Amino acid sequence: MNTSPLFGQLIVAIVTPMHADGEVDWPGLERLVTTCLEQGADGFVTTATTGESATLSDAEKIKVARVTKTLAGSSAKVILGGASNVTSHAVELVREGARAGVDGLLVVTPYYVKPTQTGILTHFRTVADATDLPVMLYDIPGRTGKPIAPETLIAASEHPNIVAVKDAKGDLAEVSRILNETDLLYYSGDDARTLPEMAIGGVGCVTVTGNIAAASYRALIDAVNANDLETARVYHGLLEPLVRA
Question: Catalytic one among 69, 77, 138, 146?
């Protein structure tokens, strides 16, 4: 199993706390990041779906990333999420993220417009060309309307900056194929599939429920790393009702 420290293994897709008036709760964000670090998180994705990417301004997205990275320091990687479905806008965001000091970028399939696979690949390559930071692709057809085809993932893997996938498609047979044919790091983007995906070679998870249960995911991942599947299954079972809720 690849346990590369590039992004870490337990990545929390962190929420962006807000006040009732819609302003970001900056002290609340600091408390949440600190708690997740104390519970064993070694990475954060900021301002993705869970982090209110659709409602934050670009300036707020960059500030969330900067605050998170200041708190995480060298203890955890920070990946900027919320890339746009407009390629030129996505390029602007990743450049701003690099200036803010993030460690990587999460780039989602262009949503709503339902591009062809050639269009998806061109989007990914163009964004990756605009940065020296490592890129994690986000495959979540339930929200974007378009899956990333296996052939597109294989072609994208040839770009030196495209190194990982957050998989919310849920096709473990496809994951096995991509792992066999590329060097991409795979992260479960569906909390319920963290253990199954790691069992076939995934490196870890980008977790939503990790916002309130990072310690349990840390224990599950550590058990898998130790080849202790019995303990991993215990934590998987403990987490299942929370994920389902």
Answer: 138
In the residue annotation, 166 being an active-site residue is answered as yes
Token pair recorded at residue 7: 């992004």
DSSP 8-state code for residue 9 = S
Model-wide pTM > 0.90: yes
Q: 10 Å Cβ neighbour count for 164?
A: 26
Tell me the pLDDT tens digit for each residue of 27-60: 999 999 999 999 999 999 999 989 998 899 999 9
138 part of the active site = yes
Neighbour-count burial of 59, counting CB atoms closer than 10 A to its CB (0-12 exposed, 13-18 middle, 19+ buried)? exposed
Query: What residues contact 142, with CB distance under 8 A and at least 6 apart?
Result: 168
User: Which residue type sits at 167?
Assistant: D
AA identity, residue 90: A
